[in-house]
User: Fold Signal peptidase I from Oceanobacillus bengalensis.
Amino acid sequence: MAKKEKNEWFDWIKALLLALGLAFIVRMFLFSPIVVDGPSMLPTLEDRDQMIVNKLTYHLKEPDRFDIVVFHASAQKDFIKRVIGLPGEHVEVKGETLYIDGEAVEEPFLEEQKDNIRPYQTLTNDFSLENLPGGYEVIPDGHVLVLGDNRGNSTDSRMLGVISMDEIVGEASLVYWPLDRMQFVGE
Assistant:
């Protein structure tokens, strides 16, 4: 009887260790939670929204324009922003219009904000890639340009410069908390 009880405890310990090991692998290499900190992605994401970051996505493919990504802004802080410019592209904003390689590009996620702008107010101040830190003419290989959706209150590539793909943690696409905001986000 004692041996059977000992084997049962051993089986429970093995199952628990296996579950902890799987949870560790999933958390380290596949998915992890993040909490949005601040208003830089309003109205798409709200302060304190809790999201899942897919860490695997960019090991399989390059980011697409308008993906929402989490990246290491510093050793202590991760930021969440939207990919606007891709490697080899020239980016500028003039008169509230985004231009990629001289062609106007719609930003559907900003339409509501643009509709609510008062006269003499701007959502996105004019800028050109050359005027950003680094002074690039085109975005270098292995880098992206990111902006927050709340352009007037966002620390993004306009201050940080282009972001190395090595600094990107993953794609954030699912808000899971609060429950009334549960949604897939993106373009």
In short: The longest helix spans residues 2-30. The chain has one domain: 33-184.
